[in-house]
Amino acid sequence: MYEFKITGTLAFLRYLLLFQLLIFPIGCSTAPKPVGPHDVSVALPSYELGTTYVYSDGSWETVADISPQLVTWHDHRGNVYNRFPDFTYRSAKWKTRTRHGTRQFVPRSDVLFKKKTSLWPLKEGNVSGFSEMVTSNNPGEPPKSYRVNWTCEVIGTDRVAVMAGQFDTWEIACKRYDNSKNPSKARVKETRIWNYAPEIEHFVITERRYSGRKAARRLELLAVLPPLSRLPDVTRQQMDSAFQMALELKKSGETVAWSIPDTSWSGQITPTDTFRLADGRYSRRYIQKLNHPDGQRIYHGLAVRDSKGVWVIPRR
Fold it and tell me: Which residues 6+ apart lie within 8 Å of 8 measured at CB?
């Protein structure tokens, strides 16, 4: 069993919150640091089949399928989402136990000056605007259709610290408006913010703020897990052994390497930080490299030492 991806409890939600408040200023920006020159643009994310992204509340989602246009995600609740690599668009198609629907994205018709419909490739100052044509329904009920208007902007660059580590990011903000017949009087109903890290081709912070009394929601990246089910058994065993050895025995900055003889499979695991949680358990950040026939992938994360001495990724 590849222990580093498994945990059987949700108790970590409490101690991660304490960890967040007392031990490490998670999510707090350090002094702004450019990702690169302002005239450099960033391409759309490229996802790998089977990769799992774990977030600060224990939720997770896995890349279940990849087509030329859409990425299919399965989450911890069994929900299915079809999304564009451009995550500023909400799901083009989704299905949960209580609701399903589709969205089409079109240029906004309620404004005088037309904008591009996508921010990508990212560049500071890029602005986009689009409308969602949404059709959704609860099972057994007639579908409902409505329009949602959005405006998005690339705010700039920043270096942020989250549970999974520290990353150079692009900050992106999108605003959702009410459906006022007079565009000049349309009010912002919701603001969505992402910090996108080109290093891992995924966002490390996502936040939703609402104009009413609804509480804001903020998630940070806790770990990125490699596509274990697609790896040979011997490779998984080697990875697990190196993972446990590195986190249990090595100092921060020391590396455990492994390889499979006569193959292209090899890798490294390097702990980067060590902390003590409020309940006394140890926690470590790490960087894992996996070399395979198609190249190299790097995975960042945070692991906790359980009562049996096994290092695990806390998740639902």
Answer: none
Convert the pLDDT of each residue in 122-131 to its tens digit: 999 999 999 9
Whether residue 121 is preceded by a cis peptide bond, meaning omega within 30 degrees of 0, is: yes
Whether residue 162 contacts residue 221, with contact meaning beta carbons closer than 8 Å, is answered with: yes
Helix (H, G, I), strand (E, B) or coil at 73: strand
Q: pTM for the whole thing?
A: 0.87
**Residue 235 vs residues 105, 134, 158, 267, 311: alpha-carbon distances, Å:** 42, 44, 36, 10, 18
CATH architecture of 31-225: Beta Barrel (2.40)
Domain with CATH 2.40.360 in the chain: 31-225
pLDDT tens across 18-29, in order?
A: 444 334 443 444
Distance between CA atoms of residues 216 and 98, nearest Å? 23
What gap in Å lies between CA 164 and CA 195, rounded to an integer?
13
pLDDT over 90, % of the chain: 72
Yes or no: say if 236 and 3 are a contact pair by the CB < 8 Å rule. Answer: no
The Cα 234–Cα 107 span in angstroms is 50
